[in-house]
Amino acid sequence: MIEAVMIWNEPNNKSHWDFEIDPEWSGFAEMARLAGQAVAAESSELVRVLGGISPIDPLFIQNMQGKGVLDQMDAVAVHGFPLDWNHWMLDEWPDKLAEIEAVTELPVWVSEVGVSTFGAEEVQDFGLQRTAELLIGRAPRIHWYSLYDLPRAWPATTRHREAEGSSYYRHFYMGLLREDGSPKRALQRFADLTPELGICQWFHFEDHRLEDAVRWLRRLGVKHLRTGLSWADAYRPNALAWFDRQMSALEDFEVTLTFCFTPEERGVEPHYTSPPLIPEEFADFCAALTRRYAGDGAAPDLEPVSTSRVA
Questions:
Q1: 168-191 tens-digit pLDDT
Q2: 16 vs 2, 8, 117, 309, CA distance in Å?
Q3: Is residue 285 within 8 Å of 34, Cβ to Cβ?
Q4: Which residue stretches of 136-277 are H helix?
Q5: What is the mean pLDDT of the chain?
Q6: Could you tell me the pLDDT band of residue 301, with boundaries at 50, 70 and 90?
Q7: Cα–Cα–Cα angle for 52, 286, 158, rounded to 5 degrees
Q8: Which of 251, 265, 242, 259 is CA-nearest to residue 293?
Q9: Which are the contacts of 210, defined by CB distance < 8 A and separation ≥ 6?
Q10: According to the model, what pLDDT value does residue 308 have?
Q11: Secondary structure (3-state) at 256
């Protein structure tokens, strides 16, 4: 079942939203407000979550409050990777949550937290244990990132390779399972921490790992799963068939479904991080897929690829 819809992913991170095009996030705010309203119109029961922020920045949350975005949300979310990328220490997690709680009355979710095995699997094992100690009981939802390592043949498209040194390559080692599906040291510890800990696992378009992932999630006792459906993918041939396959496979979990990524054809610039030319089109996408997978209305179909919008 779908328990929540998340509007975008890391909107204050240039790898996910181009704030050089939209420096005050006014375009993002309009798009997010419209999307929140559209989701609520399709299903009043769904929790609407503002896309998890990275870095954890209370000023961004205040900006969204001032622009009316939080009026259309039921929770906000944060992402943190202090052992890999952030400039703060692991034990500061409670303080980081408190910074956001100080500027909003909405619940604060942790929709991505994880540790890479880039240097040693023991680091991930320790990080998982300490993260659980710091966050379980402190945040309503905690999604560990992630189940699988990113296949090395796939670029980490949100990142910048050599310019980031080891930071780029850490993206490929965030899983509890290696690329070949074999378990890492921390996997058993994670199983001991479910269902309090959930998983964030992104699936690429027509991802070959989907069915195997479901088997592992069940085996590990996962209850809460965060994943996404890409607006950009709606422009691909057979998009709706893939969306249906993915959501059918995940129907036994309480899913937080993230809607994000601008189709190149519909952006101010031809890139998935671009603000859309027409923000209502993203809201239409959110409404249609909410209606299809979590609402009471008739299931939508995709319009022809010439327009490539979910209706």
A1: 889 999 999 999 999 999 999 999
A2: 23, 8, 24, 21
A3: no
A4: 166-170, 187-193, 210-220, 239-249
A5: 93
A6: low
A7: 45
A8: 251
A9: 203, 245, 246, 249
A10: 41
A11: strand
Tokens, residue 168? 């780029």
Number of Cβ atoms within 10 Å of the Cβ of 138: 14
Q: How confident is the model at residue 302 (pLDDT cuts 50, 70, 90)?
A: very low
> 72-102 in b/e burial notation, b at 16+ Cβ within 10 A?
bbbbbbbbbbbbbebeeebebbeebbebbee
Which band of pLDDT confidence, cut at 50, 70 and 90, is reported for residue 307? very low
- Residue 246 CA to residue 248 CA, distance in Å, equals 6
Tokens of residue 69, six digits = 């975005």
Specify the pLDDT at position 311: 45
List the structure tokens of 197. 């800990």
Tell me if 138 sits within 8 A of 107, measured CB to CB. Answer: no
DSSP state of 303: P
Structure tokens at 84: 């890999």
Counting residues of the chain whose pLDDT is more than 70, the rounded percentage is 91
The single residue listed with the structure tokens 């939209």 is 22
**Radius of gyration of the CA atoms of the chain, in A:** 18
- pLDDT of the residue at 288: 98
Secondary structure (3-state) at 148: strand
